[in-house]
Structure prediction request, 372 residues.
Amino acid sequence: MKQRDEFYEILKDPVSYGRKMKEQGRKIVGYFCSYTPEEIIYAAGAHPFRIFGTGENIHFADAHFQSYCCSLVRGALEGALAGNLDFLDGAVFPHTCDSIQRLSDIWRMNVKGPFHVDVVLPVKLDTDSARAYMIDVLKKFRNDLASHLHVEITDDKLKNAIGTFNAIRGSIKRLYELKAENPGIISGSDLYAVVKGSMMMDRDHILSILPVVIEELEKKKENATSSAGKRIVLAGGICNHPDIYRIIEEAGGVVVWDDFCTGSRYFEESIKDNADPITAIAGRYIERPVCPAKHAGIFTRGENLLKIIKEKDASGVVFFFLKFCDPHAFDYPYMKEFLDREGIPSMMLEVEDQLPSEGQLRTRFETFVEML
Ligand code: SF4
Ligand code: SF4
Prediction:
């Protein structure tokens, strides 16, 4: 992949990328979760920049968070308190898991400077009132953001933003499909770098380079030989570990799809045409696959995972989530039971910002892959 270095550079040093954008006069709005309406931030002329954990030791954040909060929120707060996120003009906190809600409170009281917006989305998404409530919340966010950034967010700007994000999500989905059809044409780590990079890079730039990556893979697929790796789906919340794909591949597996908010939940469901763009954006949140911090029916998440496994012809699932992530930890027994009933093997891995030793991981994956 020709653009490989560009993606890896951003993943290695997102802070420098953010600061460079700021120097170019861009307004930058940080966010933490895929329930953040990036389209509205983009329509306001600002750049939505997703913040992940630091991967470094936590010093400042431990004074505010218990050590049993997930490393994503502790790492994000650490970055802010250490001054690494000084390029942000504001931060947006959607109402999802408890940890992000508490991060919002602590951020408001301790991180100086930038504006702070809570987007209090409904939790239950399968009720009659959820859609109307979601629309109201997004309208409020539109107004709050416009007043913080001193801009007007017109319907035309929103429609343009919807077109941009639909195109980006559609391109990432196409890359996933190409990988699922011909797993050898792009490594899991490279695909991960594209998806994660797309949440931080300038969206107009990413919109222009994704078709180039797709074209390259379409050409490669003509000479591709079928991979012998066992087809695996990853499931969980956030994946912050590119190495996991390489270790799975070295153990004889291949990741053909995922159910991550740094993966398929980010690109699934495009925003439908609607005269009112806010109603259209709200519609996507109601209809797209949910994470366990939201509710859309008792069996919805399990059924979605089964659908992925069947469609992608996968043999097993690796549940992968951050330690102390309550929504996914509480969800796991039910999801595992769902798979057990269908005879689909799975394993579970809980990690911190740092992965356990590679040898230990490889042995676990090799054992799992042999079982498939
Ligand atoms: S798992 Fe859900 S709540 Fe957590 S970051 Fe992803 S979308 Fe947000
Ligand atoms: S969903 Fe889990 S990993 Fe994501 S912020 Fe909440 S607790 Fe952390």
About this structure: The beta strands are 28-31, 47-50, 90-94, 115-119, 230-236, 253-259, 316-322, 346-351. Residues 33-35, 96-97, 237-238, 261, 291, 293 surround iron/sulfur cluster (ligand 1) (CB under 6 Å). Residues 155-181 form the longest helix (27 residues). The chain has a mean pLDDT of 93.
